[in-house]
Write a structure and sequence with these properties.
This protein is α/β, with parallel strands linked by helices. It has one domain: P-loop containing nucleotide triphosphate hydrolases (Rossmann fold, 3-Layer(aba) Sandwich), CATH 3.40.50. 61% of the residues lie in helices and 12% in strands. The protein is built from 11 helices and 5 strands, in the order H-E-H-E-H-H-H-E-H-E-H-H-H-E-H-H. The protein has a 5-stranded parallel β-sheet with strand order 2-3-1-4-5, with helices on both faces. Helix 10 crosses helix 11. The longest helix has 15 residues. Bound molecules: adenosine monophosphate. The site of adenosine monophosphate has 16 residues, from helix 3 and helix 4.
Length: 208
């Protein structure tokens, strides 16, 4: 079964897409299917803020404004996380890389470990829909001006990664402007999973 095959193989996958496109939701399903941890740099930073660590104190204001944390800080965070044992067989990266220098950092980490990315999944959604969804979600940092700023930063700093990964033959595009189950099915289809597998995984998530 494709599911068993990909679990035993592991996989290194990057989720790319604007804030609010549903990367976190889709990432949860896909990482179960692939049998690898989902690594969200946004979640890691929010945890650091909540715990009041030196990293958290450094990034709190930056995150609240919708700007990006600097590439050197993020390189330390990601290098340390990817070195943990649970990431040995692969990972699903959500929220990293977000700039061209970060993509180069990731390429360096992979090169040093004689590893390669399997795919970069672009989950795309029109901008007005993104603002609507993010306001509905209502997280503390989700004020409309901050959302607009995050989208501006995405277009300026992160969108260039689409071309970067397309040139390297890694980009797979997913229309995120559909019901969430359709997005999930489309995404799992890219990894060779059939209908049975996607409903199986959905049940796992629903029952979790
Ligand atoms: P996210 O949950 O991925 O939208 O991330 C929330 C916030 O954390 C972002 O708006 C940034 O301020 C910061 N952040 C997360 N990942 C990165 C990254 N790879 N580079 C820079 N800043 C990041």
């Amino acid at each position: 079964m494709a599911d068993a095959a990909s679990r035993s193989r592991g996989a290194r996958v990057v989720l790319l897409g604007p804030p609010g496109a549903g990367k976190g939701t889709q990432g949860q399903v896909l990482c179960q299917h692939l049998g690898v941890p989902a690594i969200s740099t946004g979640d890691m930073l929010r945890e650091a803020v909540a715990e009041g660590t030196p990293l958290g104190n450094k990034v709190q204001g930056i995150m609240a404004s919708g700007a990006l944390v600097d590439d050197a800080t993020m390189a330390d965070v990601v290098r340390e996380r990817l070195a943990k044992p649970d990431a040995r067989r692969g990972y699903l990266l959500d929220g990293y890389p977000r700039t061209l220098p970060q993509a180069e950092t990731l390429a360096g980490i992979l090169r040093d470990a004689a590893q390669e990315l399997d795919a970069v999944l672009l989950v795309d959604v029109p901008e007005d829909e993104l603002v609507r969804r993010t306001l509905l979600r209502g997280r503390g940092d989700d004020k409309e001006d901050v959302i607009r700023e995050r989208l501006r930063v995405y277009r300026e700093k992160t969108a260039p990664l689409i071309g970067y990964y397309r040139e390297r033959g890694l980009l797979r595009e997913i229309d995120g402007n559909r019901p969430v189950e359709d997005v999930t099915a489309g995404m799992l289809g890219l990894f060779g999973a059939g209908r049975e597998v996607s409903s199986e995984v959905n049940n796992e998530v629903a029952g979790a």
